[in-house]
What does this fold into?
Amino acid sequence: MKIDRQIAFWIIAAAVLLAFLFIFRAILLPFVGGMAMAYLLDPLADWFERRGMNRLMATMTIIVLALVVLAALLVLVLPILVNQIGLLIANLPEYLTRLDSVIESVLRSSWAASIGVNPDAVRSSLGAFVSQGTTWATTLVTSVWSGGLAFINILALLVVAPVVAFYLLYDWDRMIGLVDSWLPRDHVETIRRLAREMDSVIAGFVRGQALVSMTLGVFYAAGLVILGINFGFLIGLGAGLISFVPYLGSTLGFVASVGIALLQFWPDWVMPVAAAALFIVGQLLEGYVLQPFFIGNNVGLHPVWLMFALFAFGLLFGFVGLLVAIPAAAAVGVLVRYALSRYLASPIYRGSAGEPTPPSE
It folds into this structure.
């Protein structure tokens, strides 16, 4: 009966948390962003404290340094990104015309005729697909950028999140101690052990993957710019940032860079092949060098589970869901492994074979 009450309590607590996130998802972005910043910067604050700073000075130093670095990045990178986005929008009609000519030349080629391709049928299907895709993309971009709430959220993220991060970072150790004092005393050591495992997984993945993503972004952007592919800086940097989701960034970057290279250099195949080779090398670099060095092999977040969590939480809670998806995936993974270990050690799994043999008379 006691175990049933405990299970019911934790189920209710999880349901209340999910309901809270769902109800207030429209205003949670700056607070979740500030909490994420505080969590990521807490080890640095502890480092400053070990070298003689008090917590207030360490927190102020970290926030100021973070804002200076962010401002420098915005000054250096933002103009380039804005310029390339503007050029992409301005050159979009020309690229659509080139795409039409490339498709026409491929459909009218001798090898397409040899395998029985009907150019008119293929063009009709592609036209319908492109039309639907353009309508969907236009609607999505319009709804995102014209929505007042989206603008307010972005403004709040830039203004409110650093303030939230400052207060949380300053009070981080005290808050952890307060939450620890609320834990049920009968299970406090188990909960602490699970919390340490969750923290290890989250910290190992988030901090490590952030370094991997930044390194890949610089590598892809520099490579595409050297190859002379249009919008290479925008594509490469975006592919690196999206690499926070395993395989997604490299896949999107591969498709975008090879597609732009085809339109830019057609019918020459050298640059499209070079762009493809760049992303293949990037994947090898990520898999055999960056991830083992920055993340290691014991994080415990499978890429499929991570992608599912990101899509599921993003669907339910929007951009806030993307921020909480990785901690939630890590927490669920730790709890599932703990529950599985308890199940494997229980009579439910072991059955009669695991029970002691009764003494013979």
The two ends are 36 Å apart (CA to CA). The chain has a mean pLDDT of 77. The longest helix spans residues 55-107.
